[in-house]
UniProtKB/TrEMBL annotation:
Signal peptide residues on this chain, from the entry's feature table: none
Residues covered by the TPM domain: 143-202
Organismal lineage: Bacteria, Pseudomonadati, Pseudomonadota, Alphaproteobacteria, Sphingomonadales
Classification via InterPro entries: TPM_dom
The protein's name: TPM domain-containing protein
Amino acid sequence: MAATVSMTDGERARVAAAVTAAEASTSGEIVTILAASSDDYDDVAIAWAAFLGLAGLIALALFPDFALGAYDRLTGAWAQEWPAGKLFGVAALVAALGFTGAWLLLLWRPLRLALTPAPIRHRRVHARALAAFRIGAERRTTGRTGVLIYLSMAEHRAEIVADETIAGKVPADIWGAALAAMLVEIKAGRMADGLIAAIGQVGLVLAEHFPRSEDDRNELPDRLIEV
């Protein structure tokens, strides 16, 4: 996993204060998580490396004379007949070089992420957000009124996941305004402001549907969780 995205202590304090302020008018509980990345995408890197290794074999099959002639020139050998064993050896070498070279290139995470199809990135972020919600918020409040705001920086994607009581009253698309408000700020390089904007929007929705009761207590941490 990529290194954790860090914020200043002042920014963390501002985010926590925004959660506290939003929860002052609602019995809902807001949890914020900032992730550097939602997945290592090792399987994608392996798939690309295997594909490029296979591409090398296909090129060898399509242009054998060129490939074998190049091998002779590189090794200083005279033009010769190629026995089957040696042909298979060259084929194995081409596949191994293609796979290894691609894998080494894909150790550079920006390239690995750029070569990961968007639908895969979106599914991984969603799955990680759900996993984080189940660990940190789901059914951990008395009225099952927890909401997770999850931001994954490498994928430039955010998710809002709500507990079952909230999901039963609030349509999922209602969180679109909160996500839009967050992404506007984040695109401008203001990460803390983006989270604070989303927290404010979520707080308004929760206050409308789940106003704070007199005996309400804070059941989940207000602080920003960084992973």
